[in-house]
Amino acid sequence: MNHDRYGLDGLPLACRAANTDPVTGLPLPSVPHADPSVQDGNPYVLPTVVVCMIAFVIVFLVESGIVG
Predict the structure, then answer these.
(1) What confidence tens digit (pLDDT) does each residue in 15-39 have?
(2) Which of 11, 40, 62, 63 could serve as 68's disulfide partner, Cβ 3.0–4.6 Å?
(3) Would you state the pLDDT for residue 61?
(4) How far apart are CA 34 and CA 44, in angstroms?
(5) Pair 60, 67: CB distance under 8 Å
């Protein structure tokens, strides 16, 4: 048996599914998916980022002499 082409279970590496371990042939653990309604996140992050972006643009415009 050529160990470069076959896994420990004897099956060729090219014949395996993408979600299996290439050496043992065992299926890889799946990642549990949460309900999309649970993944709302922190409601303060987006407004904070938007305010910081607006403040940066205002400071940039004033310091560069375009406005002011």
Answers:
(1) 666 777 777 777 888 877 766 666 6
(2) 62
(3) 94
(4) 21
(5) no
Which pair of structure tokens corresponds to residue 5? 């082409």
Whether residue 19 contacts residue 30, with contact meaning beta carbons closer than 8 Å, is answered with: yes
Residue 19 tokens read as 């979600």
Residue 61: both structure tokens together: 């415009």
Residue 47 has pLDDT above 90, yes or no: yes
- Compute the distance between CA of residue 40 and CA of residue 48 in angstroms, rounded to an integer: 16
Is the distance from CB of 20 to CB of 26 less than 8 angstroms? yes
Could you tell me the CA-to-CA distances from 63 to 11, 23, 43, 66 in Å, in that order? Answer: 66, 60, 31, 8
Other C-beta atoms lying within 10 Å of the C-beta of residue 16: 15
